[in-house]
Design goal:
This protein has helices spanning 3-16, 22-31, 36-39, 42-57, 68-75, 91-99, 128-138, 156-164, 177-189, 207-212, 228-235; strands spanning 81-83, 106-108, 116-118, 120-122, 146-150, 169-174, 196-200, 215-218. It is α/β, with parallel strands linked by helices. Strands 7-6-5-8 form a 4-stranded parallel beta sheet. Strands 1-4 form a two-stranded parallel ribbon. Helix 7 packs across helix 8. The longest helix is centred in the N-terminal third of the chain and has 16 residues, at 42-57. The structure holds S-adenosylmethionine. S-adenosylmethionine binds at residues 124-126, 149, 151-153, 156-157, 173-176, 179, 202-203, 219-222, 225-226, 234. Residues 149-232 form the Methyltransferase type domain. Pfam families: Methyltransf_11 (PF08241). GO terms for molecular function: S-adenosylmethionine-dependent methyltransferase activity.
């Protein structure tokens, strides 16, 4: 069916719907996620495949044993909280894991009772929807621009930038060597190496890279991964190491 016929069929269907139900039908059409499978483009599918690959290489919490400080800070949250990476686990994946009993959205407030309360979820990555929104609606055209993601972790900002922007170069700087290896694996498998580079380094040593950047992305980089004195030192570096701006063009 071509566009014209499909459009007429949809209008016909609306015409045949009980008038009292039309507002509810229109509301559903405007807000439902049931159409997602028709609007997903190849780039979304590629990012979902990357999430599948990364999930199979990581523990469910997607926090590594080498990240003791992050683990400790999650445990210190006032309410019971788990790390659920928003890029690796979208709502549908979380629902299926909950159904299989492998994940829970709730915790028991009184051991042995049926009283439960929602668990806090913390993510150390942007979700696919957030990444698309950033590249398609927040940032301007990045043709010829250089983007640096401080603390690139799984590399999601870089892969989405490769697929959804024309940035000439996307740099990730990541302190944790194991995450750098994971990013290298994805870059190789999906052949992103012409525009993505990952540096295993402390951002404090990357003053000239930061000076050359047109856009700098910082997604809650330091709070969970550095002690407070380390955070203070990192954001108060003297020029030329000072971070010029959170995002600039
Ligand atoms: C919250 S994650 C950000 C993930 C990713 N940028 C995103 O938005 O999806 C923060 C990452 O920053 C890294 N990190 C923390 N301090 C850093 C530093 N001084 N230099 C480089 N990376 C750092 C951590 O190891 C962690 O993987």
């Amino acid at each position: 069916m071509d566009f014209g016929r499909a459009r007429r069929a949809v209008l016909q269907l609306l015409g045949a719907t009980a008038p009292a139900d039309v507002p509810a039908l229109l509301h559903w059409m405007r807000t439902t996620r049931d159409f997602d499978e028709f609007t997903q483009d190849n780039n979304d599918i590629m990012l979902k495949n990357i999430a599948d690959d990364l999930r199979s290489c990581l523990p469910q919490e997607a926090v590594l044993c080498s990240e003791q400080l992050a683990l400790q800070k999650i445990r210190q949250q006032p309410e019971p909280t788990v790390h659920v990476d928003a890029f690796l686990y979208d709502e549908d994946v979380i629902d299926s894991l909950c159904e299989e009993g492998k994940m829970s959205r709730n915790y028991c407030t009184a051991c042995g009772s049926h009283q439960t309360a929602p668990l806090g979820f913390i993510s150390h990555s942007f979700s696919l929807e957030e990444l698309k929104f950033i590249y398609q609606h927040v940032l301007p055209d990045l043709s010829g621009k250089v983007l640096v993601d401080i603390g690139s972790r799984l590399g999601t900002v870089l892969y989405a930038g490769y697929l959804y922007s024309s940035a000439v170069q996307l740099y990730g700087v990541e302190l944790n060597g194991e995450f750098c290896q994971l990013q290298e694996m994805v870059i190789k498998k999906y052949q992103f190496g012409d525009r993505i580079k990952v540096l295993h380094a402390d951002i404090c040593t990357q003053g000239s890279l930061l000076q050359s950047a047109d856009v700098i992305v910082m997604n809650n980089v330091f709070e969970y991964f550095l002690t407070e004195p380390q955070q203070a030192r990192t954001i108060h570096l003297p020029p030329p190491l000072a971070i010029p701006a959170l995002a600039s063009i």
